[in-house]
Amino acid sequence: MGLSHVLYGAYERRLASSLPEGGIPRHVGVILDGNRRWARDAGKTTAGGHQAGADKIETFLGWCEEVGVEVVTLWLLSTDNLGRPQEELAPLLAIIEDTVRQLAATGRWRVHPMGSLDLLPDETAAELKAAADSTASLPGIMVNVAVGYGGRREIADAVRSLLTEHAGKGTSIEELAEILDAEHIAEHLYTRGQPDPDLVIRTSGEQRLSGFLLWQSAHSEFYFCEAYWPDFRKVDFLRALRAFTARHRRYGA
To answer: What average pLDDT does this structure show over 145-170?
Structure first.
């Protein structure tokens, strides 16, 4: 065992011990960015980069489990990405299907697909639904798998669902306008019934949300990490948690 490995382990343990009890975020959202750039720098194919990113997910969920995170939202594929060339998109969808299947097979976590499943190929949508059905009763972390996801689309879908629900009840547009508030829309989001994300992490050095959880992240804390997602380490995660616990959350004040 090398000295650097020993020092890394000691630093990791010090970070973990510095986290205050009760200060861990209930819900962590992650924008898993940098797979393609990692592949380019490593001399691998784009699919190889996506696979390396997928291989990191189960490890990351284990870290979340250790510290007591209750909900994790992973953005795997945006609605914009659905427009990528088929030679790149098809392998990525196959990797996502395999990843979701493996997450469900662990029997540790509840898998909850979120996104426009109607935009996905039938086999991808079926795999996501099967994972959700097979893990629905598990007691572990809720893992939101955002595939074919876009924040604006989610809000539009929520409003559409709300209007459809009230139309079925015979509520007029005028009556709905009188009672409509933010909570009515929140009840129709993909994450309804879940706490909003306390912490949103984005890897690869990009410092923007790109539409991720637009509604739910109104009061979230953000942490931007330079590492590409396949290189994201436990110390990077612990640093994000340390930064979160050091902040005074003002909730818009």
So the answer is: 96
Token couple for 36: 């393609």
Residues with catalytic function: 33, 81
Mean pLDDT of 134-147: 97
Give the pLDDT of residue 1: 56
We report the CATH number of the domain holding residue 240 as 3.40.1180.10
Task: Note if the pTM is more than 0.90.
Answer: yes
- Which phi and psi angles does 202 have, rounded to 5°? -125, 130
Structure tokens at 32: 């898993």
Check if the beta carbon of residue 201 is closer than 8 Å to that of residue 217: no
- 195 in a structural domain: yes
Calpha distance 172→99 (Å, rounded): 44
- Residue 253 pLDDT > 60, yes or no? no
Sign of the four-CA dihedral 128, 199, 161, 134: positive
In angstroms, how far is CA 18 from the centroid of its own chain? Answer: 25
The predicted pLDDT at position 9 comes to 78
Beta bridge partners of 72: 28, 143
Instruction: Please give the angle made by the CA atoms of 17, 14 and 236, to the nearest 5 degrees.
Output: 100
Q: Which residues form the domain of 119?
A: 28-245
